[in-house]
Design brief:
By secondary structure, this protein is α/β, with parallel strands linked by helices. The chain is built from 35 helices and 38 strands. The protein is 36% helix and 19% strand. The chain has a seven-stranded antiparallel β-sheet, sandwiched between helices.
């Protein structure tokens, strides 16, 4: 049927900040949906609080609101924009929850907004586990035994007929939050209480344990004419009991019989019909008992999901785009397949290769975590690899992870004697332990008993081991077989006692080079018009080099803490920039969640590991005019020097300059020559050297390994014992590189600067001021643009130093510099002549696409010809606020440090600092209170400043609770303050106050080691009870302004188009 004519404008709700359980796959899906609806002539209105996304660029939607995704703010935007329809299915769980809230409060009815893509009844049937269970019973689809409880008494009744272990799943949560397994009644009591508190409707589903069952997923799409197709089938290698986001998965399904597959397929479609999903994509999850073949349905998501992104990239079928078009009335047989240009979307995708997804974990950031995987998701990113066989794709996926693996084999340092019983517990690298067990002579049956990993996968691993034995035979036939099974040049070189370069030369000499195949949705039945490629070692090459001028862009690989969606944003902007000036673009990446790996972004996409070998293979084929390495974070920089040495034309800032900025000794000489101050520093290769440097610098000191991203391994050390302990640990992080030791500027203000340089001219895009104290990683600190407390003299020095440093490093493109100011002295902390994580944030605020412009600069365009004027801010103030995953790691110290721990960020955007700050808090999931009690504990330096702030809170109607010293000061200055114990002083203390609901806001400015310990205790209690914590006077001042604006109703909601057009 034709598209709907009764709607003219559509509101799309984004997913908000990147967090565990809801990653950047929703930037990809939201971007696709916005573009698809605009293409059809609809006015698109977007609300999303995440500044790091392509989706929130001004040109993607017609009206873009960088606002908190809360019922209140969305309601205000609906009232202002009067959309005809709301699409809630491309913004993850966040968007669905908001849609339900708007429906229940009558907002949708009041403003005549219809839901498209999913109706309320379908959302509720799918999301409410009790309704879902009942719906499946009506159509004879089997579900797990169990029931729903709203109280502990209900829970005890349910388990009377279910043996332990039992699964506890809170309703309406994200990424399995609060999910757990209870093995006994004592655990059960505690976990039920936690589950009830995790659920927004205070409900848990208690089910029979499915531990050890096989887990599968089907990606299904349905239209309004009841046409339904399976887009992709996915099998989890790990059995039930591990969140699917944390499991290694394979597409298509490998171990079902055709009869079982058809049953699962039929149930998937029947499920969508029964739930009432009118149009769009859905994810349906199943479990199969390996003992008797019993199949049950676990759950379904009536929206684009994490697995939808994987399925879309695995098959080439643009699920989000098609779902958006179906939502406006089209049917599958009316939509063209963009990849083939000939077939229709009604054709079920068919693939003639195997796809493997492996999740990426950052447990080293959370050392109190035991690393055991369970029903609550813990991974921060993922990689995907494509091969002609499972063995080939598995090897490619492992070497894509960037965790020091060169393929599917353990690092030498990690190869220890194996305790077979321990592989019963799933961990991030259990499959490598499974391989080790087979190598040590354990039988497949013994390993299956411990892991319940299907026999087929265990036999495949055994085959890889058999192939490795051929490594002993150094001949061409062995080399060909190993390459066909995914072995890297490094793996082979290690066994043949040769370097990776020597193996590469041997391959090329003997014409053992990869061929490239196309992902075309139809197993090569039709020619693909938008080649999306992967490598293998066969005889036929389906890919010819692109003609004309072309640039290769190396992406950022898997998301992780310290390197996230911001770098993918920069890579996509680079594509746009190069295309504008007539260059074709080639994208290389292995991350299925991102916009950069969408089929129609670059002129050609290679879904390949970002290793020297794999990149050079593509360079050999395509022979690009240049390769861009500075936009993908640390990932491409790790191989930049090798690429340069191999004759690759690296455009933009030279890798030598990037290395120079990391080399303290060489960079220190530049700072001295330019007469630019920096904190006293030193480099140490031993404990003795470190102690001598610390004695000279004086404690506290900031210590870190060299050549790391995201502040990995950084700590503030207060004494000799702490330094000795650190040096012992840092050796594991840094390898051959030295440990860097800097004077820690306690009580300093920190600033970030993003700039462009073409070698001659420098354009300063923005100076951001951190709200948090010095010593917190810049990625974890809230920051304000423009700087809120910066003298003209200090600003001039920052600008001058930025120009001097950019030119001294011969920067061609982007540069980020971090400064600290103490006692009016401006110190340089760090210089990175590459893309930074703040580039998308600054670009949105000043309405200048910095990464796109930087890309043009890398191939010769000049700043003076671009008419760049930084006057577009229109009086706006923006606050960037990080989001943390501490709820996933309940034992973790929540004290922020120089090592980055945040997974994402939100923006608060307004004409007043207070309003912007309030929006950022709300966007991050913590709203500022408008009444109640404020707890205040400040260091001696801040005590005078707190007096005025405390009066402001009193005038706003708050009561003050303070620690003994602060309370005494306030009372003596005529401000009524109730005294409360610090942590460790006595009971009840401040933590008790938080737990008892007595405290609604915390202002705590720590200084020194002991106060930082107190902050940890206060911080964790505040996270558990969702209390906002402010750690600087500047932040408290912004909070006061924000609360005042909230109470007066003066917060504005304006789209980027209103502000800048």
């Amino acid at each position: 049927m034709p598209k709907r004519q009764d709607i003219k404008s559509i509101l799309i709700i984004g997913a908000g900040p990147i967090m565990i359980g809801q990653g950047c796959e929703f930037d990809y899906s939201g971007t696709q949906a916005c573009r698809a609806l605009k293409e059809e002539g609809y006015r698109t209105i977007l609300i999303n609080s995440n500044p790091a996304t392509i989706m929130t660029d001004k040109n993607i939607a017609d009206a873009t609101y960088l606002e908190p995704i809360t019922p209140e703010s969305v309601a205000m935007i609906i009232q202002k924009e009067s959309p005809d329809a709301l699409l809630p299915t491309v913004g993850g769980q966040t968007a669905l929850d908001i849609a339900i809230s708007l429906y229940k409060t009558g907002i949708l009815k009041k403003f005549h907004v219809s839901l498209i893509g999913a109706n309320i009844e379908a959302i509720q049937k799918a999301e409410d586990r009790e309704k879902f269970k009942h719906s499946m019973d009506l159509v004879n689809i089997d579900t797990a035994r169990g029931g729903f409880a709203n109280s502990f008494i209900n829970a005890m009744t349910i388990i009377e007929d279910i043996p332990f272990p039992v699964i506890i799943r809170p309703s309406f949560t994200l990424g399995g939050s609060g999910g757990s397994v209870a093995y006994n009644i004592e655990e059960f009591k505690d976990l039920v209480e936690k589950g009830l508190s995790s659920s927004p409707i205070n409900e848990v589903l208690i089910e029979e344990s499915l531990l050890g069952w096989k887990e599968y997923e089907m990606e299904v799409i349905r239209d309004s004419a009841d046409n339904a197709i399976i887009i992709c089938s996915i099998e989890n290698i790990d059995p039930m009991g591990i969140h699917t986001g944390d499991s290694i998965t394979v597409a298509p399904i490998q171990t079902l019989t055709d009869k079982e597959y058809q049953k699962m397929r039929n149930w998937s479609i029947k499920c969508l019909r029964q739930i009432g999903v009118d149009t769009g994509g859905s994810n349906v999850q199943f479990a199969v008992n390996p003992k008797n073949g019993r199949m049950i349905i676990i759950e379904m998501n009536p929206r684009v999901s994490r697995s939808s992104a994987l399925a879309s990239k695995a098959t080439g079928f643009p699920i989000a785009k098609i779902a958006a078009k179906l939502s406006i009335g089209y049917t599958l047989d009316e939509i063209k397949n963009d990849i083939t240009g000939k077939t229709l979307a009604a054709f079920e995708p068919s693939i003639d290769y195997v796809v493997t997804k492996i999740p990426r974990f950052d447990f080293e950031k959370f050392p109190t975590s035991n690393g055991i995987l369970g029903v609550q998701m813990q991974s921060v990113g993922e990689v995907m690899a494509i091969g002609r066989t499972f063995r080939e794709s598995l090897q490619k996926a492992f070497r894509s992870l960037e965790v020091g693996l060169i393929g599917f084999q353990a690092k030498k340092t990690e190869y220890r004697s194996l305790d077979l019983s321990k592989i019963r517990f799933a961990t991030s690298f259990r499959l490598i332990k499974v391989k080790q067990a087979l190598e040590e002579g354990y039988s497949i049956e013994e390993i299956y008993d411990q892991t319940k990993i299907d026999f087929w996968f265990l036999y495949q691993i055994q085959k890889i081991i058999q192939l490795e034995k051929e490594l002993e035979n150094e001949n061409l036939e062995s080399l060909i077989q190993l390459k066909r099974n995914g072995f890297s040049d490094k793996q082979i070189g290690k066994c043949w006692n040769k370097t990776e370069i020597e193996i590469r030369k041997q391959r090329i000499k003997n014409k053992i080079i990869p061929t490239y195949k196309v992902v075309d949705t139809c197993a090569a039945e039709f020619i693909a018009e938008t080649p999306y490629c992967y490598s293998t070692y066969e005889t036929e090459n389906e890919v010819q080099p692109l003609s004309g001028k072309k640039i290769m862009i190396l992406g950022g690989g898997p998301n992780r803490i310290g390197q996230g969606i911001e770098f993918d944003y920069c890579c996509v902007q680079a594509v746009f920039g190069f295309k504008e000036i007539g260059y074709k673009t080639i994208m290389v990446n292995c991350n299925p969640e991102t916009v950069s790996t969408d089929f129609d972004i670059a002129d050609r996409l290679y879904f390949e590991p970002l290793t020297y070998e794999d990149v050079m293979n593509i360079v050999d084929l395509e022979k690009p005019d240049g390769v861009l390495v500075q936009f993908g974070g640390q990932t491409p920089l790790n191989i930049a020097q090798l690429l340069k040495q191999s004759g690759v034309n690296i455009i933009g800032t030279d890798p030598d300059a990037i290395d120079l900025a990391e080399n303290r000794e060489k960079f220190g000489k530049i700072l001295n020559q330019l007469n630019i101050p920096a904190p006293k520093w030193g480099t140490a290769f031993s404990v003795k050297e470190a102690l001598n440097i610390a004695e000279d610098i004086r404690y506290p000191v900031l210590v870190r390994p060299s050549y790391v991203l995201g502040g990995r391994g950084m700590e503030i050390v207060y004494d000799d014992e702490g330094l000795k302990t650190y040096v012992a640990k840092a050796a594991l992080v840094s390898g051959e590189h030295p440990i860097l030791i800097d004077a820690f500027l306690e009580d300093a203000y920190e600033f970030d600067v993003d700039a462009l340089c073409d070698g001659n001219d420098v354009f300063i895009a923005g100076i951001m001021q951190h709200i948090e104290e010095a010593g917190i990683h810049s990625g974890d600190s809230a920051c304000v643009l423009p700087a809120y407390e910066l003298s003209l003299n200090a600003r001039k020095k920052i600008e001058d130093y930025t120009v001097m440093l950019a030119k001294s490093l011969n920067t061609i493109g982007l540069i980020n510099i971090q400064f600290a100011i103490k006692n009016e002295i401006v110190f340089v902390i760090e210089v990175n002549p590459r893309a930074s994580r703040t580039v998308p944030f600054v670009s949105k605020v000043i309405d200048i696409p910095l990464a796109k412009i930087a890309a043009k600069i890398t191939i010769g365009n000049k700043i003076r010809d671009m008419n760049l004027v930084n006057n577009k801010q229109k009086g706006l103030i923006a606050v960037k606020k990080p989001v943390f995953p501490f709820d996933k790691f309940p034992k973790q110290n929540v004290f922020l440090s120089p090592e980055m721990k945040s997974t994402g960020e939100v923006i608060g955007f307004d004409s007043h600092l207070g309003s912007a700050y309030a929006k950022s808090e709300s966007g991050a999931g913590k709203s500022l209170p408008i009444s109640g009690n404020v707890f205040i504990s400040v260091n001696d330096i801040d005590k005078i400043k707190i007096i005025t702030l405390a009066r402001d809170f009193i005038e706003l109607g708050f009561n003050i609770i303070a620690t003994k010293g602060t309370a005494s000061l306030l009372n003596k200055n005529g401000i009524n303050a109730e005294s409360i114990f610090k942590v460790g002083e006595g009971r009840p203390n401040v933590v008790d106050g938080i737990k008892n609901g007595k405290i609604q806001l915390v202002i705590n400015t720590p200084l020194g080691a002991q106060s930082r310990y107190d902050e940890y205790k206060i911080g964790w209690a505040s996270i558990r009870y969702k209390i906002t914590v402010i750690t600087t006077i500047s932040g408290a001042q912004a909070a006061v302004r924000g609360i005042r604006n909230i109470k007066s109703g003066s917060i504005e909601y304006r789209s980027l188009q209103e502000v800048f057009c």
